[in-house]
Amino acid sequence: MSEKPSVLPAKWDDLTVRITSAVAMTVVGAIGVILGGHWFQMMVVFVTAVMVWELWMMIRPESATSGMLLAALLASVMSGQLHDETLFAIVLFLVVPSIGAFYLKKERLTFFCFALGIQLAGWGLVHFRADYGFTWILWLILVVIATDVCGYFAGKTFGGPKFWPSISPKKTWSGTSAGWLGAGVVGFVFIMFTNAGWSIVWISMVLSFASQMGDIAESALKRRMRVKDSSTLIPGHGGLFDRFDALLGAALFMLLVAYVFNVPGVAF
Fold first, then answer.
1. Three-point CA angle 36, 196, 261, nearest 5°
2. Number of structural domains, the chain?
3. How many CB atoms lie within 10 A of CB 260?
């Protein structure tokens, strides 16, 4: 008895698995974002710790136990750090990246920079949720989602010239620009029910670009480490680092903006 041929073209083969995994992550993430407080903190700390473990495993896969211990240390450090407003809390950002880099035999600077970026982004997300509330963390997340979804479908549908073929061969200019447009639409929608002015549209598009750079940075890391995915934790998506790399880029951008312009709440 012959197998029933797939209804979807080959280039869409992964769509069902991706959507199923995305829905599951969206439900869990939405619950955490809506509840806020300690629930959101615990979710972010967990995801941040797992991403640091994935980073370690890409560089030193033969030492899984060390990676798990490092992730546990990060979870402990970050949990205390989120409730400490002193200079000591800032110094704590260096603990896990420094210890991990010390015990690695190669790619020490790579680990230090990425681990520090992951931790900073996680810290920023928690404070954005606490200081600015549900609406604006929702805006940030929706911009990242719109960028990813619009970019995925436009890239698959239209193809065309590659955006940065030496680092991310699958990304096209059509998908990249569609991501910007999708983010702009999100900004436009938020004008209707918030006090944000028209500037939120172009800010959303800049944030979209920052999220794409987070994706590009992780793609460059994987290419350097010669791995396809950061891990196999999420069917159709790879690891948490693969799924949240764009959100990391967006969060780091917003943290930079808050620091440079001394935005109340998250500026040091």
1. 80
2. 1
3. 9
